[in-house]
């Protein structure tokens, strides 16, 4: 074997020319004079250490919104001053009521010490604190402020057990022992601020507590959050109507909670975040830490407390993220009516011609399916406001049920589960991370939280003109309500207050037993005022803007005929918002409930329009009809003694719209 060879002017000599007989040979090079041997495929990196190299990966974000009152179109506040102002505000939010001072806060992850800013913010006061020193006052609390989904993924995967990235890119998390809301542990401070406004007593979801107990729980939550090395802070908005939006601050201990609220609230632009200032409402989520069960009013280790005077919410003893979403919805149910804005638990969409429809319905009635019609723009799927300018979504995201989810049944939700989405309590394959949506091992209440922009036909911004149709949905398993009925204003109020549906509870000896469910305003757990107040506002706005009320039965009577929900969503004229013959149809009044039903609709068999025709045994139909009417009456007894306005005229009008038998 030859022992030498020339390579572009530099001679390579393999050992002494004897090949490989004496072991590995030395490789020698001969260079031309003044020539440097290097890899010239790219310029050398502009870093002297690995840390410097890593720092080059991330480009700093610098908002450029001009500050009000400064001279020059391009005058901006320095990044250091902006961060200082933000930290001062956050420190004030975390101030202990006994120590009268906020914690020392710095921005950044404590695990990345080299990135911690040099300046520290401590909220100082000009008086002697009640307690002059504590361990928490000697430490720094790191603030992870409005992190992006990618940053929150990193935090969750690294520090929160039970966090995984699924095959679709969503973040799968666990909410701990609580996998749903705890309505019996939700309390509201009853003081002079809300004493006369809120609905108290029989039938009300509002459980009272006193100011002192709230402050005890607030102190417990704040002390817990201040004891941590880091907390997550989200500054965001509620309500897409810019004239009536609410600034909210969420302080939490988990990346899961921060990402959930990032998705569910409206996300501010960097420019809006610059001038965010003091929040209108603050949530202290210390859900990993229990409340003290010896504290007055406490009945378990869980407590969700609202103080409307202080504009604060405290969460202890539950990590279920839905408590934050629905807690803020309750707040909006109080704040918006004070501005003569109606807050609604409804879906909302808009046609290409600008016709808006509102959908009210309890679980299983088809509200989500109808509001996410592919032929219409989605304004929102759950929480809305109706003001003098039109409708607006309260939220910035969707919180969808995932149990038995499939691509075929719910393609929009299926496709929205991707990077940035939070998947709560789902079960997945340990190897390929593919989610099994039929698995109820953790809970049946599996959920996905994602930004509304993940829905292809979402209307951004999520606002629309005044609704033309208000659709109340009922899945009537008794089979006695018509498929579709046109409602008077009084009937709309009556059925809105009732919030009825009936689902099949189970099977015993082959017989299906329907079970009626009533939920005032189709969301009793979240309303703050008496239901008749919301109903009166709804009727007033419908009358003013010419909206028509409809009662649509998506339940048993339609199902037995094989019509299912499709006749409501795919071109049939039974869809109230579809231009067609419904508004101009001839109507007749049903017995007992007095509902106006069409006698004939093009393309729809006339016999299904009146439910009595679907019953072979007419006596059985009449008996079931009277039974359901009795259930309505019994439920409405809760509301009969409430007077609206100076007299009982409106109350009597609503009562007169109910069943007569």
Helix and strand composition category: alpha/beta
The residue ranges in which pLDDT falls below 50 over 5 or more consecutive positions are 1-20, 36-40, 62-75, 123-132, 505-511, 556-580
The CATH superfamily of one domain appears as Phosphoenolpyruvate Carboxykinase, domain 1
The beta-strand count equals 33
Question: Largest beta sheet: what is the strand line-up?
Answer: 4-5-10-11-12-14-13-8-9
Query: Total number of helical segments?
Result: 16
GO molecular function, one term: ATP binding
Pfam family, one: PEPCK_ATP
Keywords: ATP-binding, Cytoplasm, Decarboxylase, Gluconeogenesis, Lyase, Nucleotide-binding
EC number: 4.1.1.49
Can you put this structure into words, describing what you see?
The chain is of the alpha/beta class and 661 residues long. Among the domains are: 143-341 and 387-454, 3-Layer(aba) Sandwich (Phosphoenolpyruvate Carboxykinase, domain 1); 466-657, Phosphoenolpyruvate Carboxykinase, domain 3 (Alpha-Beta Complex), CATH 3.90.228.20. Helices cover 24% and strands 23% of the residues. It contains 16 helices and 33 strands.
SSE order and pairing:
Layout: E1 4-7, E2 10-14, E3 27-28, H1 50-55, H2 79-93, E4 104-107, H3 135-138, E5 140-145, H4 149-159, E6 164-165, E7 171-173, E8 186-189, E9 207-209, H5 211-227, E10 230-238, E11 246-252, H6 255-264, H7 270-274, E12 281-286, E13 303-307, E14 312-316, H8 322-338, E15 342-345, E16 347-350, E17 356-360, H9 367-371, E18 377-380, E19 383-387, E20 390-393, E21 397-401, H10 411-416, E22 422-424, E23 427-428, E24 435-436, E25 447-451, E26 463-464, E27 467-474, E28 484-487, H11 489-498, E29 500-508, E30 511-518, H12 531-545, E31 548-553, H13 556-559, H14 566-569, E32 587-589, E33 596-598, H15 618-636, H16 649-656
Helix pairs in contact: 4-6, 11-12, 11-16
